[in-house]
């Protein structure tokens, strides 16, 4: 299958589109954090995490025209243990359901292992988000745990699926 997307580093110029996507109720219902996003809050978080090396944020862009379709990141990077938490969302409504999330996950896993030198990339998904869980599995993530009533969203406790992918090539070199 021909590559549909490419990843590029997120910049401050992406703030408005990120904030709009993150506050979209259709997307927001799948986020663990339900807090409203502001431009100022996003830029502060982006600057702090980027400067500290604790996060790597990328924009998912259409290979045909460069249009931003979503965002992917690895955050809470732990350099000592060489691991970080994966996150993604497809903000462009027309881009959903086309396999772009799986492709972006594969690209970000490769980047995390080869460029960031990570050994393990993990994620948390809302248990009811079957579409995302299938996409993560296609990209190589494996379920490691199921956390009952782990987070409280809008006053209701929700289960979390814990998944991870490990750099098996690096494991054999250690």
Features:
174 residues, alpha+beta, Aminopeptidase, 33% helix
Total number of strands: 7
CATH class assignment: Alpha Beta
**Structural classification:** alpha+beta
Gyration radius over CA: 16 Å
Q: Profile the largest sheet.
A: 7 strands, mixed
- Indicate the mean pLDDT: 89
> β content, as a range?
35-45%
Shape descriptor reads globular
CATH topology: Aminopeptidase
Low-pLDDT residue spans: none
Helix content: 25-40%
Task: Give helix and strand order, one letter per element, not per position.
Answer: EHHHEEEHEHEEH
Distance between the termini: 33 Å
Provide the spatial order of strands within the biggest beta sheet. Answer: 1-2-3-4-5-7-6
Second rung of CATH, namely the architecture: 3-Layer(aba) Sandwich
Query: What's the number of structural domains?
Result: 1
Q: How many H/I helices?
A: 6
Find the CATH superfamily: Gcn5-related N-acetyltransferase (GNAT)
TL;DR?
The protein has 174 residues and is α+β, with helices and mostly antiparallel strands. The protein has helices at residues 15-22, 25-28, 39-52, 100-114, 130-139, 168-173, and strands spanning 5-9, 55-62, 68-78, 83-90, 120-126, 142-153, 156-166. It is built from six helices and seven strands.
């Amino acid at each position: 299958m021909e590559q549909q997307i490419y990843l590029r580093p997120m910049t401050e110029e992406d703030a408005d589109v990120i904030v709009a996507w993150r506050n979209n109720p259709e997307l927001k219902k799948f986020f663990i954090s339900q807090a409203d996003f502001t431009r100022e809050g996003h830029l502060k978080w982006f600057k702090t995490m980027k400067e500290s090396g604790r996060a790597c944020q990328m924009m998912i862009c259409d290979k045909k025209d460069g249009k931003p379709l979503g965002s992917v990141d690895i955050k809470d990077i732990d350099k000592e243990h060489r691991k970080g938490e994966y996150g993604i969302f497809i903000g462009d409504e027309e881009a959903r359901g086309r396999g772009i999330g799986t492709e972006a996950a594969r690209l970000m896993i490769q980047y995390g292992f080869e460029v960031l030198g990570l050994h393990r990339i993990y994620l948390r998904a809302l248990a009811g988000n079957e579409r995302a869980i299938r996409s993560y599995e296609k990209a190589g993530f494996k379920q490691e745990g199921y956390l009952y009533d782990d987070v409280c969203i809008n006053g209701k406790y929700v289960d979390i699926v814990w998944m991870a992918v490990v750099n098996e090539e690096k494991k054999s070199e250690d």
